[in-house]
Write a structure and sequence with these properties.
Helix content is 45%, strand content 18%. The chain is of the alpha+beta class. Strand 1 and strand 2 form a beta hairpin.
């Protein structure tokens, strides 16, 4: 049995209705929709065929049906017509992005909140790995007796800092000298590559070798502790507003997944490119997310480092809305962050 045009039309009407209401859809409901033009009896027969084909399920004794993950896959691949984001939506998103900040982390954090508010689902943003970024400058600032604040600024505005011990007898001029030398030697080098120059720097150092060694050791530890991507989540509780998550056990499972950054990274893991990727229900690798759909896109920072945007919602999510919002944000964020070089 194949799906003909009539079945396509009826299935699309069922999915559209279920996305809006979260209620099982009956033949009479579909027959009343404009553009369908079939009797309830005809629709019932077609719904029975669609159920046999695995596109619909009957959740209980109700005569209504709900779409299966297979139906949503067909819907997003063939039936759905993706529109454009309205001018009002674009302006609202731009107004709420923190574009005044010179730190990428602040811009990305605001983007996570904007994505969640614009879609009413949970958003995930994975920032680029620290090791893939390049050093812009390093500064040592005295903050207390024999203590200094080391500040690493990357090419994309991400700032990392740490407190280091200053050997006795060194003053602010010594800190400035080390800062300038480190910036000269390490500027424009990927953070992953600076480890290779540490021994060379120590060999070349004529003065303040102890302070230099302490500084390089702290940089090494900083790189090791932040070798993975930063994960930022917006609207983690928004899915709890949907009837699918009224069950306490299901809600707890969802929230526990969000607490694990490694699991979240696995959920939104993707290849390069800015095109949208959609994983529906069982297509997700994490069993606790089999009732969720995850839509992702890549964005770029500084023209070369990739990060990932994602939206997590129920399988009956408003795919059209999510895709248009996510696509716009991926491009807008890439444009904004292209300035950070």
């Amino acid at each position: 049995m194949q799906i003909d045009e009539r079945k396509f039309l009826i299935l699309q009407a069922i999915i559209d209705d279920y996305i809006m209401t979260a209620m099982p859809v009956g033949s009479r409901t579909i027959s009343r929709k404009a553009g369908v033009g079939f009797s309830p009896a005809t629709i019932r027969n077609e719904m029975s065929d669609l159920e046999e084909l695995g596109y619909l399920a009957q959740p209980h004794t109700s005569a209504g049906r709900i779409p299966s993950p297979k139906a949503y896959r067909l819907y997003v691949d063939q039936l759905m017509k993706v529109g454009k984001l309205s001018v009002d939506d674009r302006e609202w998103m731009q107004d709420h992005l923190d574009l005044r900040s010179r730190q990428v982390e602040n811009v990305i954090r605001s983007a996570a909140n904007v994505l969640s508010d614009a879609t009413q689902y949970t958003s995930v943003i994975v920032a680029p790995k620290l090791g893939s970024l390049r050093i812009k400058h390093i500064q040592l600032v005295p903050v207390a007796d024999r203590m200094a604040l080391m500040i690493i600024v990357t090419n994309v505005g991400i700032v990392k800092d740490a407190v280091i011990r200053v050997p006795e007898g060194l003053d602010a001029d010594d800190l400035y000298s080390i800062s300038r030398m480190l910036t000269q030697k390490l500027a424009d080098k990927p953070l992953d590559a600076v480890r290779q120059t540490f021994s060379e720097l120590l060999r070349e150092a004529e003065h303040n070798r102890k302070l230099l060694g302490e500084t390089l050791q702290v940089i090494e530890k900083k790189l090791e502790s932040e070798d993975s991507d930063d994960v930022i989540i917006g609207g983690s509780s928004k899915l709890l507003d949907y009837p699918e998550y009224s069950d306490v056990g299901k809600a707890k499972n969802f929230l526990s997944v969000l607490e694990s950054k490694d699991t979240v990274r696995k959920l939104v893991k993707r290849d390069g490119g800015l095109e949208i990727t959609i994983r529906i229900g069982p297509e997700n690798e994490v069993p606790e997310m089999k009732d969720c759909s995850i839509v992702t896109a890549n964005y770029r920072v500084g023209g070369h480092s990739n990060g990932t945007l994602g939206i997590i919602g129920p399988t009956r999510m408003n795919y059209n809305r999510v895709i248009t919002v996510l696509d716009y944000m991926a491009r807008a964020l890439s444009d904004v962050l292209s300035e950070y070089r």
